[in-house]
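Hey, I'm writing a tutorial for new members on how sequence and structure tokens pair up, and I'd like a real worked example in the thread rather than a made-up one. If someone can provide the structure for the chain below, I'll link this post from the tutorial.
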Amino acid sequence: MRATAVRRTALAAAVASLTLLATACSGSDSDAKGDGGASGGKDAASSKPAAVKALTSAELEKVSLEQGDVAGHKISKTGPEDIAQPEDVTVDKKECEPIGFAFYGVKRGTPVGNAGRKVVQEPRKDESADPEDALAGLLDVTSSLVTLASYEGDGAAKSLAELRESAAKCATGGFTLTMKGSKQKVTKVTEEKATGGEEALAWRVQMGEGDAAAPFKLVSLRQGGTVATFFSFNLGKTGADSDFAQPAAVIDAQVKKLG
């Protein structure tokens, strides 16, 4: 394998490991989060949903993804060890806290119930490929942390609006996140199109710069009083020019269960 490929593989693994530690902190039975979305759904500014009854954690568990719901993916439930507490995460810019907290699943607002899942795409295997291409195929998998949080009244809509505003303010200039002493520099936040639910937002989030950069995807949507958030990374994608697709199959499956 070429030296550059080795460096990229090592970087991808390092970034992914750190991100798994942090993002796994999002969404378990005792963690709740309100994240936002925009772009493919209705404009939150003009959308004024009627008051809704929040779902309890037990009710959210029933509409969360389960193994077999998404072909080619392994799905598991998050546990108490995956929860990030507000004191575990700091953001150096106050206006960037909502979107920064969304990466780690830090509780925002006052959700009534919550649930979480880890969804990992199964790797492609091509025995006829040369070693470097075969390794690339094994690394080209998208892992997502999926969290659900349900709010009374217009709490979900407000949570999305807060996230939208935060992302807009922090799109350029960057900000720094610290998760239990480990720092991550967010250098760019780029809005993308998203669909699903009654409102949906999506961004490509870049951490680091140049060859040390890695892209992540954040998608958040609202269905009634429930906010579903998907924070994803791909082991095989590093570098400022790298990108990967949103986990559309995972998002669609979750929206279907919420509907």
